Amino acid sequence: MAAPALAKRPCSNPSSSASCREAKRLRAAAPAPMERHDEAAAAADAATTTSQSQSQPLLPGLPDHLAQLCLSTLPPRLMHAVCRPWRRLLYALSFPPFLSLYALLEDAGNGGASFAAYDPIAARWDCLPAPPMPSPPPTLCHPSFLSRRLPLQSVAAAGQLVLVAGSTQSLHPALCRPLVFDPAAAPGPRWQVGPRVPLAPRRWCAAGAARGRVFVAGGVGAGYDLAVARSGATWDPATPSAPWEPLPPLRDGRFSRDAAEAVCSGGKVCMVNLRGSGAKEGAVFDLVAGRWEDMPPGMLAGWKGPAAASPDSGDTIFVVDEERGALNAYDWGSDRWTTVAEAGRLKGAAEMAAGGGRVCVVADGGAKVVVVDVTPKGRMRGSTTPAPPRMWEVEAPAGRRVVSLHVLPRMTRPE
């Protein structure tokens, strides 16, 4: 996934204008990608330059805090290629972060779960520390459900990765409390434990993010309970000590048969009660009015696969028609879906995420992630037809499959 350009920031000191101009000159004349060195050469280079780079100013003649303001206008990929001090700055807690792809992975050999983040600037996967899983831990599949995935449900909210629900091998709820991974925590990225889920722990619920808050509705506890199946709640992961806030109850308990996305768009949270392209029912929660509504018929008819939305794409809901391999976008005004892109490699899509003008789709059984650039494009030369969106692929880590994914700020790194 390519990281979007960082928002430009003006320098706040006139004396720094020359250095700002130098930074802009570098942006316009980006060097070729850095050459690869073998491990021995890289280690020797690091040993001889570490002490120098630690004392080297970011921009000569300018205090580092002002240099950071100038460098924040540069593309992250350029900063990564220029020098070690700039590269370290990219991952500093004080520097504006670029976006990365976070994935729940399944080991192809033993079915175990792990987490990793794909850094699009360095083009590599970095392992996340293991979360403090309860005992027994959640499982990603169950032998009694040969064709059904029982996912560990996760949400991206307030710049953090939140595990909200899952099933144990014995089909009991796996998480009494959410587990929260903060990629920008000081002194380094870490997991925290949130407050108890209201009423009872659950599985097979609708889960998503709404205006920076975790949103959960429906689901099943240790056994079916209509009160749990109709319940919903929101929680702010940026304030771990804050309690869950209840939502008005659902009209019925239909959202308790499958794990589903809850997608926020236009001030409303939208969800369907079944995954895939089969017949399903939908519901919409109006965040302003605080009430449940019926899903518009056009939206429900076109919801034929995994769905995601991103605030930086105008809250547009994207759905992949898993049978056609078509990426479709929803328009509230016309209650219609329009095709953004169609490709054979999108067929069978199981999960997706959106952010930074990109839609990322789990494809080929989790062996890869297909990234689609959905930022507005110009028209093809000599034609009134819009230029097709760019697509590229990110391979899953060796020996693992991507189960679910999210777009979040990159992880900080220690100095």
Blueprint of the fold:
Elements: H1 17-28, H2 39-55, H3 64-71, H4 76-82, H5 84-90, E1 99-107, E2 113-119, E3 124-127, E4 153-157, E5 160-165, E6 179-182, E7 190-193, E8 206-210, E9 213-217, H6 226-229, E10 232-235, E11 245-246, E12 260-265, E13 268-272, E14 282-286, E15 291-294, H7 297-302, E16 307-309, E17 317-321, E18 326-331, E19 336-342, E20 352-355, E21 358-363, E22 368-373, E23 391-395, E24 400-409
Parallel strand pairs: 8-12
Antiparallel strand pairs: 1-2, 1-24, 2-3, 4-5, 5-6, 6-7, 8-9, 9-10, 10-11, 12-13, 13-14, 14-15, 16-17, 17-18, 18-19, 20-21, 21-22, 22-23
InterPro entries: Kelch-typ_b-propeller (IPR015915)
Protein name: F-box domain-containing protein
Biased composition (Low complexity): 41-56
Structure at a glance:
With 415 residues, the protein is of the alpha+beta class. It has helices at residues 17-28, 39-55, 64-71, 76-82, 84-90, 226-229, 297-302, and strands at 99-107, 113-119, 124-127, 153-157, 160-165, 179-182, 190-193, 206-210, 213-217, 232-235, 245-246, 260-265, 268-272, 282-286, 291-294, 307-309, 317-321, 326-331, 336-342, 352-355, 358-363, 368-373, 391-395, 400-409. The strands form five sheets. The protein has an eight-stranded mixed β-sheet, with no helix packed on it. Strands 3-2-1-24 form a four-stranded antiparallel β-sheet, with no helix packed on it. A four-stranded antiparallel β-sheet has the order 4-5-6-7, with no helix packed on it.
